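Entry: DNA-3-methyladenine glycosylase I
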Amino acid sequence: MEPIRCSWCSASDLYKKYHDEEWGVPVYDDPTLFEFLILETFQAGLSWITILNKRENFRAAFDYFDYKKIALYSEDKIEELMQNTGIVRNKLKIKAAVSNALAFIKVQEEFGSFSDYIWKYTDGKPIVNHLKNSKDAPATTPLSDEISKDLKKRGFKFVGSTVIYAHMQATGMVNDHVENCFTRKGK
């Protein structure tokens, strides 16, 4: 028998695997936080399943989200990425990945790690919401508004409040699994 899950992930086995193993699990390491940040920025205006289906292509195309390499991408590399049919070919988003890598490194220099910076907003602990239905999850919150505003001041692009709230959900800063979801057992 299938376990009870949040309703949004029933469309595919890939979606279920992501929901079961990653979504809402706290992430404290900078490389994974950067990967999710870049994937979320590419997702803006698209469905998350579109990004999940292309995730391995993104990893290969973007040097497995090595932000130090991405920060050095040339115009030639950006043009090469624009020809890659395995990813979302949006020049503004590709250029944002480069500028976001540079901004990410600056945040690391200032705070010791991006993790220390981002998790300070929740005192290092997940915010656990108690939702009866996935549709009750907000798209933004005052906290995602605040983080978005600060990231933009620091030079990040495509980091509106909706993108940031999705990032917070993906990296476990917020646990928006519905109350009867099997992932909440023991939490």
